[in-house]
Amino acid sequence: MRKLWWWLPVVVMLSACRKDTVGAGPEAGTEGGETVARLEGEAAPGAEGDGPYTVTKAKLDAYVGYQRKMLEVYGSLMRGLQDMGPLMDAGTPKALEAARSGLKLIERKAQAETDARTAAGLTTAEVNRIAEVVTTVISQRQMGRTLQYEEELKKLEALQARMPAEQQQELAPQVESMRREVDAFQKLPEARREFGDANVDVVLTREADLTKNYQDMLKAFAGVRH
User: Fold this and answer.
1) Which residues contact 47 (CB under 8 A, 6 or more apart)?
2) Measured between alpha carbons, how far is residue 141 from residues 66, 104, 119 in Å?
3) For 222, which of 4, 70, 101, 171 is 20 to 30 Å away at the CA?
4) Would you state the pLDDT for residue 42?
């Protein structure tokens, strides 16, 4: 499906034109406008915030529900874009019409995102701030599992235990280095320094759900790249 992406600049161009038109009307600056702007890579107003943000259990639970809803939205969007692939690849006279259809898909996604966020009781800024913590924590934990450092450490320690004392000492620095890597993925010291212990700990209370959402989102996007 790599050929599918050649027409996306057309969609972006049409989207930019549409945004200019909308911006001139009475709805400029509304929540919907913010969401479309975020889709086009612009920073959402208030996304950075001032000072540390506290992720509460209630806000995190709302965010998990928001994520699941957005997975449905992204899945629908990706399927729609895939269905348009053969038409666009064929270079038919309906190519521009297909590009406009792609724009409509993106606009529907933007509205669905606003609806999901509103239903969750979250602002755009809250979604962005919570996502920052969640993405950092869950991606680091996922990387640790992918690299299988814990399993490698166990093998290394077992090997060291079978060695003569002199060889054990030679292997000790490597074992200690691996332990530090495992400790970093388990305790997340960098994330804790950046976001605080309380924020990291509350995210870890929903680690299983957030990890599933993280993996499902990767699958949703990977579906258009093959």
Assistant:
1) 124, 125, 128, 129
2) 21, 36, 29
3) 101
4) 37
pTM: 0.66
Please say if the pLDDT value at position 31 is more than 50: no
Q: Side-chain half-sphere of 119: how many Cα atoms within 13 Å?
A: 13
Lowest model confidence (mean pLDDT) among 28-32, 146-150, 188-192 = 28-32
Q: What angle (nearest 5°) sits at the alpha carbon of residue 224, between those of residues 218 and 226?
A: 100
What's the gap between Cα 186 and its chain centre? Answer: 21
- What is the residue whose two structure tokens read 């490597």? 174
**CA 128 – CA 39 distance, rounded (Å):** 13
Those residues with Cβ within 8 angstroms of residue 14's Cβ, 6 or more apart along the chain or in another chain:
99, 100, 103
**Is residue 133 within 8 Å of 204, Cβ to Cβ?**
no
- Residue 157 reports pLDDT greater than 70: yes
Q: Which two tokens stand for residue 20?
A: 């200019």
Alpha-carbon distance 193 to 42, whole Å?
27
